[in-house]
Amino acid sequence: MSVDALKAALPAYAKDIKLNLGSVTTTSPLTDQQLWGTVTACALATKSPRVIAELSAEAQGHLSPDAFTAAKAAAAIMAMNNVYYRATHLIGDETYATLPARLRMTVIGAPGVDKVDFELWCLAVSAINGCGRCLESHERVLRASGMPREQIQEALRIASVVNAVAAILEAEAALASV
């Protein structure tokens, strides 16, 4: 199970996605933990069983057990937060932003890995889940911690490619059953 297996499974029309998957997983300026935590969290956010299986198996070879768990926790907490904060933002009544969320999210304060890495993973998942408010919040924390925009952009590139792989493979599976 691996990145190579996913690349091999992509159809010819998705050559750009195949090349991008190879590129983001081999030439990233992120640390190994940042890269593979981002890959893991994004794979989970896609909800694609195949992408989750392939990428998490490879990521476990690059991440400590604590980092692997933290990447999963980032995907989990953002699955909740992205829905809540996107909805309160889209309603258009800023009063909702002043009300307490009353959702338990202590993992953000103590994720078990460097907080910057966890924030990066949350940002990438928020990109997949389309939550502008969460993207703004996590980007602000990352920039305040000194992370360069180029590294933040890299996490967004990873999110976009992993999401595209999942979308293509799920679409091809659906087309095969027609």
SSE layout and pairing:
Elements: H1 3-9, H2 15-26, H3 32-46, H4 49-59, H5 65-91, H6 95-98, H7 115-129, H8 132-144, H9 149-176
Helix pairs in contact: 1-2, 2-9, 3-4, 3-5, 3-7, 3-9, 5-7, 7-8, 7-9
Instruction: State the CATH topology.
Output: AhpD-like
Cα-based radius of gyration, to the nearest Å? 16 Å
Taking pLDDT < 50 over at least 5 consecutive residues as the criterion, the unreliable ranges are: none
Series of H and E elements = HHHHHHHHH
CATH architecture classification: Up-down Bundle
Global geometry: globular
Sheet bearing the most strands, described? none
In DSSP terms (H or I, runs of 4 or more residues), the helix count works out at 9
Structural class: mainly alpha
- What count of domains describes the coordinates? 1
* Mean model confidence by pLDDT: 96
Tell me the CATH superfamily.
AhpD-like
How much helix, percentage-wise, in residues?
Answer: over 70%
Distance between the termini: 27 Å
CATH class: Mainly Alpha
Total E-strand runs: 0
Strand content: under 5%
Descriptive overview:
The chain is mainly α. The chain has a single domain (3-176), classed as Up-down Bundle (AhpD-like), CATH 1.20.1290. Helices cover 74% and strands 0% of the residues. The protein contains nine helices and no strands. It has helices spanning 3-9, 15-26, 32-46, 49-59, 65-91, 95-98, 115-129, 132-144, 149-176. Helix 5 (65-91) crosses helix 7. The longest helix is centred in the C-terminal third of the chain and has 28 residues, at 149-176. The chain is globular and about 50 Å long.
